[in-house]
Design a protein that fits this description.
Helix content is 28%, strand content 24%. It is of the alpha/beta class. It has a nine-stranded mixed sheet with strand order 4-1-5-6-13-12-11-8-9, sandwiched between helices. Strands 2-3 form a two-stranded antiparallel sheet. The chain has a two-stranded antiparallel ribbon with strand order 7-10.
Length: 254
């Protein structure tokens, strides 16, 4: 594992929940473990950081990267100009994440988004979502079956086609496609010119995007944190992210 003091510090976004009647924030172990296995140190970020005026300077100034985790919650639709029912939403996470993304872009801080994290990057940069993708003709079923055990819910179910010349293509080392899991009801409806499509599902849905003019800001719709130590694409994604964070660490001297 090496010297812990030499490992990049990665801010990890949490989700709001209720535990035994108490409001709580949490993050699944799988995200923390994936960061640790790749060589980073995860640091959970509470939502009320967004109310602090010094968020970029005193919080992001101590981090070398940001991980936007997946979640069972949805972004509130008003953030992308929709009036559809939002389902289970997490306004505190929305506020924190949009502040984090803006600051990470300004500081050129490495960023990796997963599932909801992809949707957050899309909305934060001016894009929009289908609130309920399964109601849109032409798209395959992208939701998981909640009655299945986790091992089946997170099993690969459809292929992605990696677009040539992008960040994901470099990380995938020449592979043009992979089979990935799928556990989401929302999907990309439109993208701003600030984002580049990195991979597509067979039905044409963008499954990965990156931020143009940024050293490493990549987001994927699937869940690479699941068994990240054994899946080649997951290792490449987290490995590339942590390497970018290490470069950030060297450049800033932190």
């Amino acid at each position: 594992m090496g010297n812990i003091l030499n490992k990049p510090l990665i801010g990890v976004v949490m989700c709001q929940m209720t535990h035994d009647g108490h409001p709580a924030q949490m993050v699944h172990n799988k995200y923390l473990d994936a960061v640790l296995l790749a060589g980073g140190i995860p640091l959970a970020l509470p939502h009320n950081l967004s109310s602090l005026p010094f968020l970029p300077e005193q919080v992001l100034g101590s981090l070398q990267g940001v991980l936007l985790t997946g979640s069972s919650s949805n972004i509130e639709p008003h953030h992308y100009g929709d009036t559809a029912a939002g389902g289970y939403v997490d306004p505190g996470r929305d506020r924190l994440v949009f502040a984090l993304i803006e600051a990470a872009i300004h500081r050129q801080l490495p960023l990796l988004g997963i599932c909801r994290g992809l949707q957050e990057l899309v909305v934060a940069t001016g894009g929009s979502l289908h609130p309920q993708l399964h109601h849109i003709p032409g798209f395959q079923e992208h939701r998981e079956n909640p009655s299945q055990p986790l091992s089946e819910r997170y099993a690969p179910v459809h292929d992605i086609h990696i677009q040539p010349g992008g960040l994901l293509a470099r990380l995938a080392e020449g592979r043009e496609g992979f089979s990935v899991n799928s556990l989401h009801q929302q999907g990309i409806r439109s993208l701003s010119a600030r984002l580049r499509i990195e991979a597509l599902a067979g039905d044409g849905l963008p499954e990965a995007v990156s931020l143009r003019d940024h050293p490493f800001a990549l987001a994927v719709q699937w869940h690479p944190e699941w068994q990240s130590e054994s899946a080649p694409l997951s290792r490449q994604l987290f490995g590339g992210f942590i390497k970018a964070c290490q470069r950030q660490q060297k450049e800033t001297g932190l």
